[in-house]
């Protein structure tokens, strides 16, 4: 039995509110169970120096966790004067993932920065950030299209992410913190809406896992992806 009482293939409840902030070109608050992430997309009519005069746009991301997003208060990274290695790794993952669904030629020489701020954490914050980040990005691109600033849609596909793991010897979908902290295997799957794999992060925390178990995790992730893409479509409809 999972701590939450869910079936092995059951996702946590997903809710998305859009238009959360006044100033960002795109924004949403995504809730996946007890994990709540505020995602905003900000448009700038410039690109990093290495892309000037290239005709290519850029999508990047930043990630942060509020001090009391977890059971005990975490010190703000700004007060420490640097980001942790975990923060840097996650925000690079978010940026890579979102760019996998972007036609950078169609976007033109402009940059969209997706900020993902974890308000409350209960496992899967990077997956919620990617899934909600795509929604914020979609809303920002919609404004570009409505204004006639881009001729064709720069977003080529949905991008969503979900965690899977082996908990108590059973492959399960969408781990919460209680499961994540005890799982024998933990994996994050970033996928396109059409079924492509963008990135897979997986590791064993004790005993190794088999090819058959990996295939079971992938099957669960694909089912979870379908649920997340449906939630994305509803959010931006």
UniProtKB/TrEMBL annotation:
All residue ranges annotated as the Exoribonuclease phosphorolytic domain in the record: 11-140, 159-223
Source species, domain of life: Bacteria
Recorded catalytic activity of this chain's protein: tRNA(n+1) + phosphate = tRNA(n) + a ribonucleoside 5'-diphosphate
Gene3D superfamilies named among the record's database cross-references: GHMP Kinase, N-terminal domain (3.30.230.70)
GO MF term set: 3'-5'-RNA exonuclease activity; tRNA binding; tRNA nucleotidyltransferase activity
InterPro entries registered for this protein in UniProt: ExoRNase_PH_dom1, ExoRNase_PH_dom2, ExoRNase_PH_dom2_sf, PNPase/RNase_PH_dom_sf, Ribosomal_Su5_D2-typ_SF, RNase_PH, RNase_PH_bac-type, RNase_PH_CS
Residues binding phosphate, per UniProt: 86, 124-126
EC number: 2.7.7.56
UniProt enzyme class: transferase
Pfam families, alphabetized: RNase_PH (PF01138), RNase_PH_C (PF03725)
Database matches in PROSITE patterns: RIBONUCLEASE_PH
UniProtKB keywords: Nucleotidyltransferase, RNA-binding, rRNA processing, Transferase, tRNA processing, tRNA-binding
UniProt GO BP: rRNA 3'-end processing; rRNA catabolic process; tRNA processing
Family statement drawn from the similarity comment of this UniProt entry: Belongs to the RNase PH family.
PANTHER family: EXOSOME COMPLEX COMPONENT (PTHR11953), EXOSOME COMPLEX COMPONENT RRP41 (PTHR11953:SF0)
Function: Phosphorolytic 3'-5' exoribonuclease that plays an important role in tRNA 3'-end maturation. Removes nucleotide residues following the 3'-CCA terminus of tRNAs; can also add nucleotides to the ends of RNA molecules by using nucleoside diphosphates as substrates, but this may not be physiologically important. Probably plays a role in initiation of 16S rRNA degradation (leading to ribosome degradation) during starvation.
Subunit structure: Homohexameric ring arranged as a trimer of dimers.
Annotated protein name in UniProt: Ribonuclease PH
Annotated gene: rph
